[in-house]
Amino acid sequence: MNNLLKKGKQNAIILASLIVLIIIFAALNPNFLEKYNVVSMAQSLAPYAIMSLGVTFVIATGGIDLSIGTVCIAAATVAGKLFMNGWDIWTTIPVMIFIGTLFGLINGLLVAKLKLPAFIATLGTMMFARGLSAIIVSIPNIFYPTGTWFNSVFSNFNGFPVGFFWVIGFALICAYLMYKCKIGRYILSIGSNEEATRLSGINTDMYKLMAYVISGLGAGIAAIFWAASFTTVASATGNGMELDAIAGVYIGGTSAAGGIASISGSVIGSAMLVVIRSGLNFVLAKFNLDVNSTYVTYVLTGIIVVVAVLMDVIKNKNANKVKSRKKA
User: Fold this and answer.
1) Residue 215 contacts by C-beta under 8 Å, 6 or more apart in sequence?
2) pLDDT digits over 82-113, tens only?
């Protein structure tokens, strides 16, 4: 009960911060809340939020997955190449999901079975996915259809950002897995104390592998929304997307040390980054400031992530002190 209250309070603080940001950007430039920009932000949110939700399971184990960005684009470009070669668009959707899940499985095997450090293993698959997809695709840009059921179902239906509802649906599934199933309980237990979890008879390798598979699955699903929203997909890209997704997880309250995860927080954290990126564009345009908004976004995101992780570290230290006093 106490944990639920803490999560609720933490989510309320993050949500309040998001609302404050929206109010500030709207006050600085009223065009920020124009319908076209709200729809645009919602379209941008879907792939990042879904990647964030997937990688939350990995971070909850105390690990990291640096490959999700390039895997997302690799899945979109390889499936798009098949579409350009004559496949029906609906047949490319399982391909994207399969590619993402396959890379998640590879990451899980490297980390859980071969005992490679997660940073090194996923850094390797990040570069592998980027290079392999570029070789397979062999052209710089992939073009998906516009104005079809594919766009209407996964991106924009008559000006309405349907991707947002897909995010909510995926978040509910992730919340069920994390908080109501033994998969989530064991993943959180691994993040809290892997050795104690293993000694209690739980197959920690299997559940760590599952966490990476879920992360890869999230990257594959995110590719669908990326392709539907941004119908031109450049091959051999994706670097940096994983940082936005992971930053959203940290901002949302999932502990970098593992053992604590916030599914709703990951969505709110991702939304905060999308709002910051879009809001800075409008503010800089309003005041004619000759500054690249992307770089300013990096600066703000870096500061926010460092502060979020620092607060998590301080919170864990205080919790450990309290536990030590109780034992004494």
Assistant:
1) 54, 55, 57, 58, 65, 68, 104, 107
2) 999 999 999 999 999 999 999 999 999 999 99
Spatial contact of 271 and 18, defined as CB atoms under 8 Å apart: yes
Residue 19 belongs to some domain of the structure: no
Q: 3-state DSSP helix/strand/coil percent for the chain, to nearest 5?
A: 80, 0, 20
Domain hosting 222: range is: 42-237
Predicted structure pTM score: 0.94
Provide CB contacts within 8 A for 111, sequence distance 6+: 63, 117, 118, 121, 122, 208, 209, 212
As a whole number of angstroms, the distance between CA 122 and CA 136 comes to 20
Task: Give the Cα-Cα-Cα angle 243, 110, 203 (nearest 5 degrees).
Answer: 105
Tell whether 205 is covered by a domain: yes
Token output for 78: 């390889």
- Work out how many domains the chain is built from and give that number: 1
Instruction: Look at residue 306 and tell me if it is in a domain.
Output: no
